[in-house]
Design brief:
The protein has 16 helices and 19 strands. The chain is α+β, with helices and mostly antiparallel strands. Strand 15 and strand 16 form a beta hairpin. Helix 12 packs parallel to helix 14. The longest helix has 18 residues. It is globular and about 80 Å long.
């Protein structure tokens, strides 16, 4: 199976099991009830239901699939297939089905112990669905966007037990989910597998519906506006006042019972001021967040391996994902470790090109070892960070052209507008437009007056590269671009300013004009036009994508 490797997307290390793992680690299965999908579907908003129905059809409408004569070597042991049958996840089949599927297990660590997770790679169905134009819609945001919820009085979490196995495969579609074990026997799944391209979206939508997320359900079924609800595939978190959180938790448990949803036993059943969710340790009493105990332990073990001077390629890939996630939680700017990131990106590129194997040992140079060591220590030493409750205070529109840069600063309270801009030097004119946009970002952010210290700055750009780099905190393609954005972020950090970055269409960016003409050439009519563009953006009249 071809796997896409990316240091920006992985935080959990999984691998194919070795012989000793197969003997020592159990298969992660559980006999959970199939949930009542029809009941949940009836609670979805019209838009959500239409998308859900389309994704469900893509997953289980298998009439177009044709039996394949090709064969793949199975990695699934017969005892594991029998264990799936015992838990109602699979049943015996007469022979090959409509498509060729590859069953296998991966080893992962959970609560300090190893376990095996079953995967059915439905590669032929996946290829057909993706060729038909399918792109998953699973709106998981950057972890930093969830942190403000720590200012609520308390929180409550839920986690589905073996969530994917709670979705029953329709009987007429099961022959598209067949596989063979190493004894030659044929089986078919009765529950939704990990390994199908549509499975994460189906799971996330069902979980969000169960949770009463207002973006997914009819208004009558949504949690009260005073409660913040976050869902992450098959995990739920409520935050708000103790009274509201307890009421939302009571209702979701009642719905879970009616729709036959099974929660894990270890969930926070009552409103709590201290718990872990999406790798974050939430402390509502202190208003601080930190990296979870589990993530801290993993990073501490990674540090030991880094100091040995060599790690497996997969271990380094996973370390990168953990560091990026942890850095976002405790406010470590990843751009300060530019060359470590560049090393990790080159490694993942080599994995994708097949130049390195995931289990291949990679020796670390002295400089890379020091950089990774420093990055892990920076995260572990910070550990916890206060999240300051803020109100919007300044909006900064940024733009660059080949002639110069422009900025429009808008005070949120007074709507007062200040226009900035200047021409590029001869040397700067030789830079790529993305690098010029990054320099404009730095120059505009550096112009934020000191009176906004401790507030919130929203930077609005029409360049998606700069938007992405400002959110991630680093750029690996250009050190010039990286340094410009990091300098701007550092300036805001020293002012204790919280940053959000939004996108605007180029035609609606009021900073476009001062990037093209001298400030002295801007007329009163130009100022009125820029003020109108600002109002349209802030009131949402332009159909903007955020």
């Amino acid at each position: 199976m071809r796997q896409h490797h990316s240091v920006f997307k992985r935080g959990k290390q999984t691998r194919l099991p070795k012989t000793e793992d197969e003997k020592a680690s159990p298969l992660h299965v559980d006999n959970v009830r199939p949930m009542n999908v029809g009941l949940l579907r009836g609670r979805m908003s019209e838009t959500t239901r239409a998308r859900f129905d389309e994704t469900w059809r893509r997953t289980f409408d298998v009439a177009k699939l044709r039996p394949s004569s090709s064969r793949r070597v199975s990695r699934l042991q017969a005892k594991h297939a029998e264990e799936l049958e015992m838990n109602g996840i699979a049943q015996r089949a007469s022979g090959p089905g409509r498509s060729v599927n590859v069953p296998f297990t991966v080893v992962e660590e959970k609560e300090g112990a190893l376990r095996q997770r079953f995967i059915l790679w439905t590669h032929e169905a996946n290829d057909a669905i993706e060729a038909d134009g399918y792109e998953a819609q699973v709106p998981l945001k950057h972890v930093s966007t969830y942190l403000d919820a720590v200012h609520a009085e308390c929180g409550s979490t839920r986690d589905l037990r073996c969530g994917f196995y709670g979705v029953e495969v329709p009987r007429g579609a099961r022959d598209a989910f067949r596989f063979q074990d190493d004894a030659g026997d044929w089986w078919e799944l009765t529950r939704l597998p990990m390994g199908h391209t549509c499975a994460p979206e189906l799971m996330h939508t069902l979980t969000s519906t169960i949770a009463g997320h207002p973006d997914f359900v009819k208004t009558v079924h949504a949690v009260p506006a005073a409660v913040t609800v976050h869902t992450w595939v098959d995990n739920v978190r409520y935050a708000g006042s103790r009274k509201d959180v307890l009421e939302a938790s009571r209702k979701v448990d009642e719905l879970a019972a009616r729709s036959k949803v099974t929660w894990k036993d270890a969930d926070t059943r009552t409103a709590s001021t201290r718990y872990e969710f999406i790798g974050v340790d939430w402390d509502h009493q202190s208003g601080k967040v930190g990296i979870s105990a589990r993530l801290s332990k993993k990073l501490a073990r990674d540090l030991v391996e880094v100091r040995k001077g060599a790690m497996s390629a997969s271990g380094l890939e996973t370390l990168g994902g953990r560091l990026l996630h942890a850095s976002a939680i405790v406010g470590v700017f990843v751009g300060e470790f530019y060359f470590a990131l560049k090393f990790l990106r080159r490694l993942t590129n080599a994995l994708n090109r097949g130049e390195k194997a995931v289990d291949q040992t990679v020796r670390l140079s002295g400089s890379v070892q020091r950089l990774l060591d420093g990055w892990v220590r920076a995260v572990l030493e910070k550990r916890r960070m206060p999240v300051t409750a803020r109100v919007p205070s300044l909006t900064v529109f940024v733009d660059a052209s080949l002639e110069g840069w422009g900025g429009v600063l808008v005070d949120v309270a007074t709507n007062a507008i200040e226009v900035l801009g200047s021409r590029w030097s001869r040397k700067e004119k030789g830079l790529h437009i993305n690098e010029l946009e990054a320099l404009a970002f730095e120059l505009c952010v550096s112009a934020v007056p000191d009176k906004y210290a401790g507030g919130t700055v929203t930077v609005v750009v029409d360049n998606t590269t700069v938007q992405g780099v400002a959110r991630k905190g680093a750029c690996l393609r250009s050190q010039t671009l990286n340094d410009a954005v990091v300098n701007g972020l550092t300036r805001l950090r020293h002012m204790n300013i919280s940053l959000s970055v939004r996108w605007v269409k180029s035609a609606g960016n009021p900073a476009d004009l001062p990037s093209r003409v001298p400030l002295s050439a801007i007329s009163d009519k130009n100022m009125a036009d820029m003020a109108l563009a600002v109002r349209q953006f802030l009131t949402g009249d332009m159909g903007l994508v955020v």
